[in-house]
Amino acid sequence: ERLKTVRAISPDVYEAYLKGRYAFNQRTRESVQFAAKEFTRALELDPTYAPAHAALADCYNQFGTVLIGNGSPREYRARAATEAIKALQIDRDSAEAHAALGFARHYDWQWSEAEQELSRAIELNPNYAVARGYYANLLLSLGRHEESVREAQAARDLDPFSLILNTNLGWMLST
Q1: SS3 (DSSP) at 78
Q2: Are 1 and 138 a contacting pair, CB within 8 Å?
């Protein structure tokens, strides 16, 4: 069923997307800014490329955080939600878009909506480590510490070389 939605993508679009994802995973202010430019470039070339909308949502979510951001979290969460929803309008089964929307809902204190989106992301792609990391953070916010540690461990196990996921697990274990 999922293969029915697979379509050809321009190499230029995909290259911009991959450059953006690589930069995003470095998680510095400069690298996330660069990533946002690459995802925007991919969308200028193909506005119907759902993964780039979801990835741009990830950038906006990070711009609304203390570590990366330099703007209003309220503004950036709204922008993230808008991009994630655009991605879902194109591909309702995008785990990345559900995860990005879940992140935005979490930090807007829309707990049940956040949990629905993050659970859906994990249901669609149980191996998407980022969604499990986001879900771990939500669970911690909800006071479900043991579950949060399990999700953080699952995320780290799926992507053991991710500095972000390893740091997140350490944070969970220290709380």
Answers
A1: helix
A2: no
Which residues, 6 or more positions from 18, have their beta carbon under 8 angstroms from its beta carbon? none
Largest Cα span, the chain: 46
8 Å CB contact between 97 and 91: yes
DSSP state of 97: H
**Residue pLDDT, tens place only, 128-148:** 999 999 999 999 999 999 999
Instruction: Give dist(CA 55, CA 146) in Å, integer.
Output: 29
Mean pLDDT of all residues belonging to the chain = 95
Nearest-angstrom CA–CA distance, 32 and 23: 6
| Tokens representing residue 6 in the block | 């697979």
Q: How far is CA 11 from CA 16, 17, 42, 45, 94, in A?
A: 9, 10, 10, 10, 20
pTM above 0.70, yes or no: yes
Tell me if residue 87 falls in helix, strand or coil.
helix
What is the mean predicted confidence (pLDDT) over 164-168? 94
74-81 LR contacts (CB < 8 Å, sep 24+): 77/104, 77/107, 77/108, 78/104, 80/104, 81/57, 81/105, 81/108
